[in-house]
Design goal:
The chain is mainly alpha-helical. The protein has two domains: about 1-185, Up-down Bundle (Growth Hormone, Chain: A); about 210-400, MFS general substrate transporter like domains (Growth Hormone, Chain: A). Helix content is about 75%, strand content about 5%. It has 18 helices and four strands. The strands form two sheets. Strands 1-4 form a two-stranded antiparallel sheet. It has a two-stranded antiparallel ribbon with strand order 2-3. Strand 2 and strand 3 form a beta hairpin.
Length: about 450
Amino acid sequence: MLRDGGPFRLLFAGQALSVVGDRITPVAIAFAVLAIGDATDLGLVLAASGVPFALFAIAGGVVSDRVGRRNVMIASDVVRTASQALVAVLLLTGNAEVWMLVALAAVYGTAAAVFMPALIGLIPQTVAPDRLQEANALLGVTRSLATVGGPAVAGIVIALAGPGEAIALDAATFAVSAVCLLALRPRPRAVDAPEADEARFGRRLRAGWAEVRARPWLASGLGAIAAYHVFVLPAVYILGPALAARELDGASSWAVIVACFGVGTVLGNLLAMRIRIGRPVLVAALALLVAGTQAVIISSGLGTAGIAALEVPAGIAVSLFFTLWDTSIQEQVAPAAVSRVSSYDFAASLGLMPLGMAVAGPVADGIGLQATLAVMSGAGMLAALLWLAVPDVRRVRRAGPGDPVVAAAPAEPVPAAATGRFEPETGPLVRDADGLRFGRDPAPVEDR
């Protein structure tokens, strides 16, 4: 665990537990819905939890930067505790109907959509700047381990009790997360100018987008990450199991492939905890290029062992990308706007992912399974290459203690009237005492 990381320890404890619950829910919901409906009903429930990212993630970022990230996260955990508890009660009493699960899945998805941008903004307030990459990587390790362990826990609970009990366990993890957040006292955060405190929602929304547009590496990166979620991941999630069933040994082969990918993600996050990367955006773009190979690896015809072996480095690349991407946003964007900027990330990635899920199957029916895997992988890799071609990607550097700031300001100035920042835009760039936080001298307040 990080040294001198009291606030982060509470954040980590809550997130490590709740992320296990996040991985329990899909398995439990699948069995619960299929017991009262069919595959189409299951698709509706899953879509109801995913679509809110496209609709509410950006709004969640604006609200988080306005009223306080910790506040938003606590409210999200309380809502998800209540929604999952209600799902559990409906299942345990035998009163659940598909429309009820769809409605509650939408509530759950909306709360999750506003939680994630707030989390990205809160992490820098819980650790020293020189530990930010390590903190992101450590949280990534828990997600990787939960991806393997969560479904296993779900299977055990469902086998011994039922899906209702598994969902109840998920509700309990959100309650614990809320308690940890209530006890957490983050470091002061930067806010917009006092005169902007009452700024209209639309103005604050435009200010967040101005922060994105002012950084070519960030704006082009959003396109690349959107392509990864629209093309590569749907091909893996939808077509990967189908190929395993048709050309390999079915579920056992797919389990080996997924497990090896999971091992790779753990290794990638452990690597990110240990190494310091001077050009994080450049390395993130290279990692996304490698991550884009996942679907074409599955279509390679190398057999279970060959595919599984190649999925290990792909998993390493995925972990490196997400850790370095989040860290770059947290370090290079004005602290008062981090949640707003990260909300565009979630809207462009998780929000658009259902589109890829919807078209992967029909495209495969039209041009063939292997061809679709290769084409969708190629689309994701092309987007990563286009991102690499942006000169700004190679310019962004991290500064160490005692080093001069070499890249932090936006490529083009963001008008003070648009951002509502307290300081003049012509003011000098400053760096925290620990050497890594960039921006003009902000006005700190306690996160509410």
